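Design request, tokens follow.
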């Protein structure tokens, strides 16, 4: 099974939130119904050690065009994810979609087994009936030609499954209370982010996120991610190289008053070199070193070249992030 990266999980969560919107209900109704849904997953092997996963999330009873996700995962911590493909997915297992300039899928599901699943409802909700896990084979056409030739998929069948979720009936809260505001310090998170505009809406970023685990015998845990986000026609492409480090000294940050003043990163392979952050004034920071890595669809890039902005967070974040950037517990996201 392909374990999706952060971007994929966020996209699926957003899709689930959309299909989970309440069905038509009057203002006086004390409950809301979240419709059942089907998550389709197709998995296929590609060249050069890569794997492809195609996903579709379909609310029960809904017809018409649906967003179809094409996700690829490489053998050395790489992922390329394509969003924006539109196609058809039906409850009986038909998936048909095109990724313009890259490939297409046109398959139908042949079920081989069915396992009942008891859905766990959210707090304040109850489920109606039981869900199911349907396993089988998708047969038809599966094609993908990765940008720059990083992988090719040409298959006429692939294993997969359909997760069937049942409707939920939920009580409407009398008052909506705001969730408590949490800080990076409360979460035990330290964060460094750098980035550069690549033109034509594309951007190159690097993130280092460190967690201080309160588990006996466990040391620091740090994720290092280089991402190239760009458009390809109607598709949005997220190409990333990500590695998790457990050794001490890979990410060190100094924040005497809660706001970071200095930070150093030395990620493990496939990254090479180091990067150094220094707060020069409340609103300016330097980012230097020889940190580099290969990012799929882009090639090997120097992540400390001139032109990168840099920011960091501990209990507080520096004022060196670009305008229009939001920070969510160690994930920076530019607003459209």
């Amino acid at each position: 099974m392909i374990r999706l990266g952060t971007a994929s999980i966020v996209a699926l969560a957003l899709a689930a939130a959309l299909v989970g919107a309440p069905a038509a209900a009057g203002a006086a109704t004390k409950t809301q119904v979240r419709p059942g849904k089907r998550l389709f997953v197709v998995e296929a092997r590609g060249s050069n050690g890569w794997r492809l996963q195609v996903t579709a999330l379909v609310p029960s009873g809904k017809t018409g065009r649906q967003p179809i996700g094409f996700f690829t995962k490489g053998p050395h911590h790489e992922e390329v994810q394509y969003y924006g493909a539109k196609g058809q997915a039906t409850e009986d297992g038909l998936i048909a979609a095109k990724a313009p300039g890259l490939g297409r899928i046109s398959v139908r599901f042949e079920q081989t087994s069915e396992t009942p699943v008891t859905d766990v409802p959210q707090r304040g909700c109850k489920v109606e009936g039981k869900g199911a896990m349907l396993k089988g084979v998708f047969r038809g056409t599966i094609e993908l030609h990765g940008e720059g030739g990083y992988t090719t998929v040409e298959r006429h069948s692939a294993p997969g499954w359909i997760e069937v979720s049942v409707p939920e009936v939920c009580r409407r809260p009398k008052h909506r209370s705001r969730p408590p505001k949490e800080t990076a310090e409360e979460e035990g998170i330290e964060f460094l982010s750098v980035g550069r505009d690549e033109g034509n809406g594309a951007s190159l970023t690097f993130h280092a996120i460190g967690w201080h685990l309160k588990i006996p015998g466990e040391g620091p845990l740090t994720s290092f991610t280089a991402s190239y986000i760009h458009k390809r026609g109607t598709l949005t492409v997220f190409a990333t190289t990500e590695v998790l480090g457990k050794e001490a000294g890979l990410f060190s940050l100094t924040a005497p008053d809660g706001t970071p003043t200095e930070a150093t990163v030395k990620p493990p392979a496939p990254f090479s070199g180091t990067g150094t952050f220094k707060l020069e004034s409340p609103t300016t920071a330097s980012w230097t070193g020889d940190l580099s890595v290969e990012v799929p669809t882009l090639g090997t890039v120097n992540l400390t070249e001139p032109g990168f902005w840099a920011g960091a967070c501990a209990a507080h974040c520096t004022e060196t992030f670009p305008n229009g950037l939001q920070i969510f517990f160690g994930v920076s996201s530019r607003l459209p």
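Comment from the thread starter after seeing the answer: thanks! Confidence is low (pLDDT under 50) at residues 1-28, 179-187, 329-336.
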